[in-house]
Amino acid sequence: MSMKLGYDLTIEQAQKLVMTPELIQAIQILQFNTQELDAYVEEQLLVNPVLEHSAAEVSNEDSRGDHEESFRDAQNQEKTAADSDRDDFDWKEYIRDRQYDDISYKQGEYTPDEEKNDPLERYVSSDVTLPEHLLFQLQCAELSSEGKRIGEYIIESLDENGYLTSSAKEMAEAVGVSEEEIEAVLSVIQTFDPLGVGASDLQECLLIQLRQQGQLTELFEQVIRGHLKDLAENRLGTIAREMGISTGEVQLISDVIRMLEPKPGRQFASQGETKYIIPDVVVEKIDEEYVVTINDNSTPHLMVSSYYQNLLHSAEKDEALSKYLSDRVNSALWLIKSIEQRKQTIYNVVSAVVRYQKDFFEKGSKYLKTLTLKDIAEEVGIHESTVSRSINGKYMQCCRGVFEIKYFFSAGVAGSAGEGISSNSIKEFIKEIVDEEDPKSPYSDQDMAEMLQKKGIKISRRTVAKYRDEMHILSSSRRKRY
């Protein structure tokens, strides 16, 4: 038997997904959060000349510019009038009328006429950082100019929590002074507000606070220097035996130490960049129904420039120019379509989430149900990956606050009626149990598991321990008070 091999030309039909550049762009746009989408649109505005902001946005910017110009004109007119009347102004009468008014801590009084001409910056808060707060106190301290120079270097050597990042020897070498001079200025800074700044470690930070409050005793110092780890683990009996005092005394010492601030600098503004959340959707209750609205302010509005549309019609004879403009216009239209499709997809997904989690909006986080990407994908009629991209980095504003949309997607356990109970709901129940427990006899993880099972929540001790750790709640042995 012989076989003959040959080469034949055949035609076959096959279906496959081809990721075109346009499709890749649409997927990226869906996955972008608000800030990323704004940055991407600004980039496209630079590379595509036919794209421009919609007329509504341009008119808003123009009106803001006109408003600022009119505001400046009004200020100039007021200044001119004030200059002309300055010679006739009775300053003695003004001072006599105002001399009993304490204006040192008054804010500028608001009048209705200022509403139209008031700049937005008036309402923007200015947070004070830790170095600024300490430097202000340094200028008021009774130190020489050399001492203040040393103090400025020490303050700049503190981290955001108020701890020293360099030793006295290193600072002395950097400033060109002796270690004794560094220690002398540092002792002054350690009396500044907030108490505890300028410490090299946690022990010194706690000792500084107790010393400045006048509460530092030998017992406090022994506990902080020798038993801080036992104190953190709530091993009060061990501390009592080693120090030869009662457990009750150790409990009182522990209560005082736990009231101290381990990170004095964290109450001040961070020197890093502040990030703000812009909600993508808003959920409001109207006539017993929850209505989902896309936040248009978070979505850029684009249009194709009318100038280039007219130029395209008049450039039919120039093939190269016509092709270039056609490509740019098609690219712009696809971008606009992708942004609109993104809005519609997010709206559909969030609407399905709101319908599914209606009990959460009505009753609170304890009634959050288990929800998976598959559940929403089947209801909306899209792929799970599309649901994942549409909720990535997106936020919802509702009557209960601002939540990342991912918050509503969580696993959980089964309830007595067969319904799913979200892990976030179980955490709320655990927190409620811990808040109401007797501190001298706290509930163990097994106790809480049994209490939850009585509520119809089937859960194991290990799962309770897992959720408790995620909420940073200590174990029963470390929560116990004596």
What is the topology?
Blueprint: H1 21-31, H2 34-47, E1 51-53, H3 55-85, H4 91-98, H5 130-140, H6 145-156, H7 168-175, H8 179-189, H9 202-213, H10 218-226, H11 228-232, H12 236-243, H13 247-258, E2 281-286, E3 289-294, E4 302-304, H14 306-314, H15 319-356, H16 358-363, H17 373-380, H18 384-391, E5 395-398, E6 401-404, E7 412-414, E8 420-422, H19 423-436, H20 445-454, H21 461-470, H22 476-479
Parallel strand pairs: 2-5
Antiparallel strand pairs: 1-4, 2-3, 5-6, 7-8
Briefly, what is this?
The protein is an alpha+beta fold and 482 residues long.
Features of the shown structure:
482 residues, alpha+beta, 8 strands, 7% strand
Notes on the structure:
The protein is an alpha+beta fold. Helix content is 54%, strand content 7%. The protein has 22 helices and eight strands. The chain has helices spanning 21-31, 34-47, 55-85, 91-98, 130-140, 145-156, 168-175, 179-189, 202-213, 218-226, 228-232, 236-243, 247-258, 306-314, 319-356, 358-363, 373-380, 384-391, 423-436, 445-454, 461-470, 476-479, and strands spanning 51-53, 281-286, 289-294, 302-304, 395-398, 401-404, 412-414, 420-422. The strands form three sheets. The chain has a four-stranded mixed β-sheet, with helices on one face. The protein has a two-stranded antiparallel ribbon with strand order 1-4. Strands 7-8 form a two-stranded antiparallel ribbon. A hairpin with a 2-residue loop joins β5 (395-398) and β6. α6 packs across α8 and α20 (445-454) crosses α21 (461-470). The protein is extended and about 95 Å long. The model is unreliable at 78-82 and 89-112 (pLDDT under 50).
